[in-house]
Amino acid sequence: MEATEIKNQKIHNKLKAMEDRYLKNLKFFEERIPALHRQITDNPELPSISIDPNTLNVNRLEEGKGVYQIDSIEHALTEVNNFYKTFDKKIYTPNPRNIDITHLIKKKAFRTTATLYAQELIRIGPQNCKPANIDLVVFGIGLGYHVEMLCNSNKFTNITVIENDVRNLKASMYTINWYTLLTNMRRENSITFHVQNQDQDKDSFVFTLKHHCHRLFPSISISTLTYNHVPDYVHYRDAKEVFEEYATHMKVSTEVIGPEAQRLFNANYNISKGFPAIDLSKSTIEEGKLISIIGGGPSLDIYAPLLKEYRDKFFIVTAGSGLSSLLKLDLKPDIHFELEFQVLATELLNHVNKDNVLNDLNLVSTFEANPGFPGMFNSAYMFIPESSELRPILGEAHTLKRGGITCTNGATAFCSTISSNDIFLFGLDFAYTNGLHHAKSNVSQEDELPEELSRIKTVPENRPANLPVDGTLGEKVMTCKTLNSARITMESLLTETANNIFNCSHGAAVNGSEYISYEDLEKRLKESPSNKNSYNFESREVNQEVIFQRTKSLLESSLKEAFHILELVKQFKTCARENAYNIKFIFDQIHKKYQGDMGQMRNVLSCIKQPLLQLYVVTNFLPDQSQKKVIDSWVKDFDEYLKNLKNIFETAIETQDFLVAEDWVDEERA
Question: Do residues 506 and 474 make contact, with C-beta atoms less than 8 angstroms apart?
Fold first, then answer.
């Protein structure tokens, strides 16, 4: 056989092997990953690949040119090795201070374990403490060679592959035996593909990524790395932002027993005092009225003159400390909205009430509000947030959805639920506009505050503005994790509302809202009619005994689950990877067990989530020889903490006294 014939035969054999591999992968996806199979078959476009007739090397083509300048397998091998070198040079160990848990009712409950972790880091050296369980997010599937190498290394618990073009997935099906790779993965390892459909809009694709981020808990906020496939990574800016934002968002939005128990106890107390439950399906604000939500952010100073001049054009709803700002402007709201549950909120409103009488204002608040302040107002209408354990009892008509994190988020959710009117957001910066955290008129800016309100000034100092986000004016503005989490929650709300939302802020841009400048707002207000502010709130009484029985069941079940987890952890061995994996498994089992009762799940998580996150850190980052020591320390801390929790819960159940006199937070670090 001549040399040309031999070469042609090799090319033929190569093509035949690639075609067989593609068909075998396609059949595997049809049987095991049908959603991915539908994406492949629904898209008629073929991948653009080439085979070098001399080396038989496969390359991807873009605009007729090869993507890789060297052999594609060599390119992948070099890229993966460079990634490992970079990974080995970095220190990933979480700061010991960040795992010193607060808000657990029992102060300094896990300080011993946090201190031991710090001591072990010093003894071993942080540079020698690499995470035993690592998740990896890969941006760009390429021809799949790098993904195959990463999977075969067995270094990663979960690999998430993000791909913007289904044709690249198809190309990889000619080069990678996905069916062999995926079926041979270890029990604790997994891979997830997120491939954007050709006809799928960006918002839908981003939504699926956000949902996946929740599945990656707890690793996403502790030990998830990113891998950028050259040259494709430049096309994944939006997807990267989703993962970066949710890594911090999941830290901020975690349940902790101090706040959660205090909220539940407050709800029981407020219901016992006879406050009615507002019916959100029957309550309304006058149609056509411009609604303004007033927060305490820095941009309120910019737009305040318009609020004063055109007060009669607005139905004004203040939220949280935005009330103090508005009253300083010699304006009164039509209603005030509160989500705050701490005694601190009562102390703040008491301070505001010294100069401004609140008893002619109506309040809308969560039943979880601190019991000290509803009585200051003329009347109080209450609801429960969708995260409340009492939702199954009170029902959907009395449940406010997508209103979490901040009072301003809640007020926006409330107004968009009972009205289709246009909504204007004032002082909702979600950022430190011009380096400021509040408007000049806000109570937190007063020179002389009583001692009990000193935390109002210190809290912003403890939340550094170190996250850059897009601003309404096209520039970058700085924010912090908590405010950014509130912005993400607001964006989620705005995807569900039909209201026109106008962002009157020079702070962070909020997807789903339209920025409106001072000049454009003034022009609109001049042309808007002045209407009488009117609204109608309907409500009903709540059965206190039914609420108590639900609360009793919640607390007893959560304690039982927590003590069961304590026994499970006592059986942990000295393998760091296995221990960290077992903690993730505990979280997964809780979600499966209580997925039919989200309120019970939330209550269970409030008791165990933060302690288990601490355990996840210390087991994941410390070597095998340190495992017994830190697990024994944690077990002792957890046992003492649960006994304290048991005493508080059982006393409340026995006496039916749910009044919390002091905030269940650690003021030393709050």
Answer: no
668: exposed, middle or buried (C-beta count within 10 Å: 0-12, 13-18, 19+)?
A: exposed
Token pair 């989530």: residue: 609
* DSSP state, residue 456: H
Say if residue 667's pLDDT is above 60. Answer: no
pLDDT of 670 > 70? The answer is no
* pTM (two decimals): 0.81
Residue 502's DSSP bridge partners are 424, 514
Asked whether the predicted pLDDT for residue 250 surpasses 70, the reply is: no
- Taking the C-alpha atoms of residue 648 and residue 665, their distance in angstroms, rounded to an integer, is 15
Q: What SS3 class is residue 314?
A: strand
What residues have CB less than 8 Å from 492, skipping those under 6 apart?
Answer: 402
For residue 369, list its beta bridge partners.
none
Cα–Cα distance for residue pair 59/74, rounded to 1 Å = 11
Give the pLDDT confidence of 590-648 residue by residue, as tens digits: 999 998 888 899 899 888 988 999 999 999 999 999 999 999 999 999 999 999 999 99
Are the C-beta atoms of residues 404 and 410 closer than 8 Å to each other? yes
Question: What is the percentage of the chain residues whose pLDDT exceeds 70?
Answer: 95
Helix axis angle, 518-527 to 300-309, nearest 10°: 20
> How many other C-beta atoms lie within 10 A of the C-beta of residue 537?
18
Q: In whole angstroms, what is the distance from residue 68 CA to residue 492 CA? A: 39
Residue with structure tokens 């927590």? 562
Cα-Cα-Cα-Cα dihedral sign, residues 428, 433, 437, 438: negative
Q: What is the pLDDT of residues 527-568, one digit of tens each?
A: 988 877 789 999 999 999 999 999 999 999 999 999 999 999
The beta-strand segments (E) located in 178-245 are: 190-195, 224-228
Measured CA to CA, the distance from residue 277 to residue 367 in angstroms comes to 8
Residue 604 phi/psi, 5° resolution? -60, -45
Average pLDDT, rounded, for the chain: 88
Residues 6+ apart with CB under 8 A from 314: 289, 290, 291, 292, 307, 424
Distance, CA of 622 to CA of 603 (rounded, Å):
30
* pLDDT tens-digit map of 294-303: 999 999 999 9
Q: Can you tell me the distance from the alpha carbon of 39 to that of 274, in angstroms, rounded to the nearest whole number?
A: 55
